[in-house]
Design brief:
By secondary structure, the protein is an alpha/beta fold. 48% of the residues lie in helices and 11% in strands.
Length: 393
Amino acid sequence: MKDFNFYAPTRVVFGSNAEKQIGSLVSAYGGHKILLHYGGGSAEKSGLLNVVRTQLRDAGLSFVELGGVVPNPLLSKVYEGIDLCRKHDVDFILAVGGGSVIDSSKAIAYGVHYDGDVWDFWDGKAVPQQCLPVGTVLTIPAAGSEMSSSCVITKDDGLLKRGINSDLCRCKFAVMNPERTYTLPSYQTAAGGTDIMMHTMERYFSKYEEMTLTDGIAESLMRTVKDVLPLVLKDPENYRYRAQIMWAGSLAHNDLTECGTEKDFATHRLEHELSALFGVTHGAGLAALWPSWARFVMDRHLNRFVQFAVNVMGVTNDFANPRQTALSGIEAVEKFYHEIGMPTSIHELLGREITEEELEVMVDKCSRGGKITVGAMEVLGQNEMREIYRMAR
């Protein structure tokens, strides 16, 4: 079991009408002039933004607004937000949306008091030293950014999608009302649930196996999402189902399921290049790649794949043939993905095969021209990345 340092400072306000506490929460964390940051029209159409505006005004707080965040949030919008914050002396950023909005807010928060180009942090030229406080009103359970230290941004020029991690950007609070997720489209719900499971799977598949308690927490979380997600798709306004998915999204990425392990995140890194190049939904991209990654590494880590197959996917353990048990677990994941409308190959995801040229672009970007590797359970260089992308075609 690996030594660890667990830090989860985000205050969670969870439940029906939780958003009515926004004004007092922002004030409690020192906010006076707020950047209200959001995405498309759904928060406006649902009336949530008006509730947030009213709460801020009633608390005597002034604010400026910046909408238009897109999935796979763009650096150009971050620049726009930094300029707006500097112009209006913003001292607190409130994200209303899902992971894309939260990550855009974190990136803006990093850049407001940084003298250089904020992309320096993602390019490895600098390390964040300060960050404006960020809070969120979560509307899409998926990315887990509301409780994580991560922030993923896509640079428009060159479509470079990269992530950084720093405890500085952890949200001060996260307001979560499952009722605000009732109107999420089925595809977005399914992709979000896939991302939630994957955040735990990327930690569960570790070379550190002496972690019974953490394994139990992770397995329970993955089973819950696997069992509840189809029920949410059938009954989207069931509060109990939506609440479990929403809370699972936060627990999957606040490092709880990493205690004593070493996260891998190779599938995430491979997927970043897929969604950057083709603009696909992140969760769907993960579903398209994970089975190929799993088959590529399975034989060298059979015990872990057998445990996952039996304890999470409900596969009967064939003690005489552990490899078949492990493989049946991967096949069970693929069956689950298809049941909820997710792809299990790049062809299913895009409707066509990627070209060899496109594949090489992804390999080059993922490896940063051969300068870095990805993964921890199994370290992947350019050749391994290339093979997994080819298997996933």
